[in-house]
Amino acid sequence: MTSLHLDWGILFEESPTGDGPYWQLLLTGLKWTLATAMSGWLIAVAVGAVVGVIRTVPSRWLSLLGDAYVEVFRNIPFLVQLFFWFFVLPELLPEAAGSWMKQSMPRPEFFTAAVGLGLFTAARVAEQVKSGIQSLPRGQRNAGLAMGLTLTQTYRYVILPMAFRIVIPPLTSEFMNTFKNSAVALAIGLTELTFQMKQMVEYSNQVIITILATTVLYMVLAMAVNRLMAWIEHKSRVPGLIAGGGK
Amino acid sequence: MRKMLTIAAALATAFTATAHAEETLTGTLKKIKDSGTVVVGVRDASQPFSYLVGNKYVGYSVDLCNQLTDQLQKTLKLKSLDVVYQPVTSSTRIPLMQNGTIDLECGSTTNSMERQKAVAFGVNMFWVDVRMAVKKNSGITSLTDLNGKAVVTTTGTTSDRYIKQNEKGKSLDVKNLYGKDHDESFLMMETGRASAFVMDDVLLYGKIAASKSPADFAVVGETLSSEPYGIMLRKDDAQFKKFVDDSLIKIYKSDEINKIYAKWFTTPIPPKGINMNMPMSNKLKDAFAHPTDKGV
Q1: Could you say which of A14, A245, B195, B222 would form a disulfide bridge with B149 (CB–CB 3.0 to 4.6 Å)?
Q2: Is the pLDDT of residue A17 over 80?
């Protein structure tokens, strides 16, 4: 068989795309992956927290709404959702809005990817938040209400401070997933890391080196997220509180 | 008796010859002979070279490859030869060729010097011009009309570098978009996300022919580049390369090539029965008269 031809110097060779050497191609990809995953994550946490909470409140309509959101966004493949936001939505909107989305919106593939990723991940975050809240003994809520706190106050001061601490570990893997899922956005032309990896493979034909380099970058990202979340978990720990106790 | 001896001698010679031929088979030919299977890389949507109609792969390149596999069966004296069609994409075709998944790639692959570092090509089978498809009512007729507009091309193809090179040369302000395959790139142009789709003209004609309203689109503008297409093979396999070249040259020198060309470019093609109406270019006629595997 052909012997492996590993030539790391390729990373410093000029790419024929005119975007500088190959390492710069990968760096651009890394930047877009970071930007997409981080913005997607912020949206996911904001939307997911709200949806997760309303699924636990004693209002039939609100929890139905929350359940519907989670079912819809969790059961449709992310790729299909992206195609919907990118190709279908502009055609459903009034013509002016549709053509604004297609032609005038700055960086359409980035915004579509970030929002799409955020809404998709929000369903998963909501599920975690809901189970975090439900994992608390029911007596906590009742005690809060019995002390004369309103429902909002009970959530704000009793339930959520504990529930959010409980869900930090499962949220770590969701956060890491946003980085991995952001690769799907290459399908709508976002020049993120996997996209640049494919470009580099096509131009340099150095498949193994390109994939190795990309793998290392993704692993570094995942490790960084993991450490960040561990740090947050550590900082937010309250001794004596549920999940906050001993080391 | 003498006659018998002659026959026996002839038989003996024949056997040794066969045995000898089998011994010297190497690389891909040996693999095909041993397994009785040849794996042909094909494209899902590269009309009219290689595409899916129902559950069958058809097209100009596929027809050429079918001739090659028929010839393979005869040359290797196989009772039956299993032809497996393996779908590939712009991005997977080279890795799959290198790792031995496919033996031949019959799609729409530009024979470039850069790719020749990684794979080999049979003698060129087609010549295309890189141009752009636009909506007729957009008023775009030349590259200079693209200033300030978005232009789409397919990732992993050789076309996007021509935009970039021209973008600089002509100091145009062009926004580059990328579709993951030709269908998606065409969709971006069709829905107005991009003003032009830059690609090999034949693929553009094919996409237009397959679109909802072919009359709304046109292929316009300067030729950004001319490129030969080739059937892709594994690198450093002289025996298989010679087999493919010899078989292709035989087709090119016969009337067979005209029949295959006419079938896909000047008569209605499936699935919609649309005629591409592309007479054979002088460049292509020349390529058939003087076959070469030179890339660009």
Answers
A1: B195
A2: no
Compare CB distances from A87 to B115, B156, B191 and report the shortest one's residue. B191
Tell me the per-residue pLDDT of A206-239, one tens digit each, with 9 for 90 and over: 888 899 999 999 999 999 999 999 999 999 888 7
pLDDT of residue B170: 63
- Spatial contact of A202 and B91, defined as CB atoms under 8 Å apart: yes
Q: Which of B181, B204, B226 is the last residue of a domain?
A: B226
Q: Residue A80 pLDDT > 90, yes or no?
A: yes
CATH number (domain holding residue B198): 3.40.190.10
Give the pLDDT of residue A153: 95
Distance between CA atoms of B62 and B226, rounded to whole angstroms?
A: 22
The answer to whether residue B180 neighbours chain A at the CB level (below 8 Å) is yes
Q: Which is nearest to A155 in space by CA: A3, A50, A34? A: A50
Alpha-helical (H) ranges within chain A are: 22-54, 60-75, 78-83, 89-92, 95-99, 108-134, 138-146, 151-153, 160-181, 193-204, 207-235
pLDDT over 70 (residue B12)? no
Q: How many CA atoms lie within 13 A of A179 on its CB side?
A: 21
CATH number attached to the domain at A34-190 = 1.10.3720.10
Number of domains chain B contains: 2
Do B118 and B241 belong together in one domain? Answer: yes
Judged by CB atoms closer than 8 Å, whether chains meet at A103 and B192 is answered as yes
Res B43 pLDDT > 60: yes
Smallest Cβ distance to B187: which of A87, A99, A201? A87
- Whether B294 and B124 have beta carbons less than 8 Å apart is answered as yes
Q: What are the domain boundaries of chain A?
A: 34-190
Which domain, by its residues, includes B268? 24-127+228-289
Longest dimension (CA), chain A: 77
**Burial annotation A103-123 (CB, 10 A radius, 16+ → b, else e):** beeeebbbbbbbbbbbbbbbb
Work out the minimum CA distance from A219 to partner chain B, whole angstroms: 23
In a domain, B41, yes or no: yes
- Mean pLDDT of all residues belonging to chain A: 90
Strands B126-135 and B104-110: unpaired
Give backbone dihedrals phi and psi of A92, rounded to 5 degrees, phi first.
-85, -25
| B151 close to B175: Cβ distance less than 8 angstroms | yes
Q: How far is CA B29 from the centre of its chain?
A: 21
Q: Which residue has the higher pLDDT, A98 or B17?
A: A98
